[in-house]
Amino acid sequence: MELSVLNIKGEDTGRKVNLSDAIFGLEPNEHAMYLDVKQYLANQRQGTHKSKERNEVAGSTKKIKKQKGTGGARAGSLKSPVFIGGGRVFGPKPRNYSFKLNKKLKEVARLSALSLLAKDNKVALVESFNFEAPKTKEMISLLNNLKTTGKTLVVTPSVNQNVVLSSRNIPKLKVATAADVNTYDLLNTDRLILVEESVNVLENLYSA
After folding, report:
1. Check whether domain 2-46+98-205 has CATH 3.40.1370.10, yes or no
2. What pTM was estimated for this model as a whole?
3. Which secondary structure element, helix H or strand E, spans residue 42, and what is its range?
4. pLDDT (tens digit per residue) in 139-156
């Protein structure tokens, strides 16, 4: 698959880059992508939910009425779950939702997401650029020149602080490095903007 390289003004530079079929031309593995996204979302959960059971609720344990002869059900404590203010039965407790996935499976998921974006013609290739200082206005101008709307993911070859700072106040825009981009971000975008050098980083990472 060949893509034309654009400059920051959105103009064709006349150069083309051949994207490797081993990265952008695979048959997407939907189950691998599902598992990777599921793990990503699970790892974001704090798991700090907690409710009090009857042994944790403050209150007297005195028997509130006699066992028999009242015409109602027997009751031993106001902390019983059947009473208002009582403990909760089998309530949530703090837990860790994270789980492990094989490194190979995560790699398949990431390549599947990249291939899916390429298949849907949602990938744009931009020549390397840098901002002299953090300027949100310059990043907005870049996006407008590339005619980008909706959710956008910009992938850079390495951490560029000025680009990151210029992007953080723009809704629906995320910047990630080629080594750190994940399946969730790739699937949660309408347009993938690859900085030219990031293609080499991806090929070196997944050359095997």
Report:
1. yes
2. 0.82
3. helix 30-44
4. 999 999 998 888 999 999
